# Entry
Amino acid sequence: AVTGVTLTTKAVRVEQGTTLSVAEFVQIAPADASNKLVSWKSLNEAVATVSAQGVVTGVSVGEASVVVTTMDGNFTDTMTVTVTPIAVKSIRIISGTDGKMTINLGSNYALTYEVLPVDAANKNVIWTSSDSTIIGIQGPALIIGNAPGTAIITATTEDGGFQATLEVTAEGETGLYDLTGNTTETDLNTIKQLRD
# Structure
């Protein structure tokens, strides 16, 4: 007859929307017990569910207790399942061709980019320029050609620090900016519209 059950791991983490088998953590005593059947139960199914085979699914961010019970003797043990937010896996800049693009001096460009997976919890991106005197950052994914030349724009995800780069060259006549380098009222409205 079964004399007890132990979960060799008392805490596991699973990302929201993914699964993890916890059946391997079950230890039944004695090791040669004839009936090793167990049942599983989640005490918070809004956070995590568990199948009859001991496969945990992360439903929403939070904590849930999962209980294993032996069929023989009704012995139990419990583990804590922590469901973590969906993590960022990658970023790419869609704008440009083969990682390069050319813009006009003084003109603003809103860059198109993609953070994956689409349902990642924190899709915030930090934008930097290798030389902001040439290509400046006006706002999230918004660049401006400040002077003739080339600079590397880097997009870095807050979650995971994944990076994508774009080589941007500014050339031609100054567009929005007047010769004194002062931004005109019209330019500010244009920038605002691009941001909105």
User: Anything to note?
Assistant: DSSP finds one helix and 18 strands in the chain. The first strand starts at residue 4 and ends at 7.
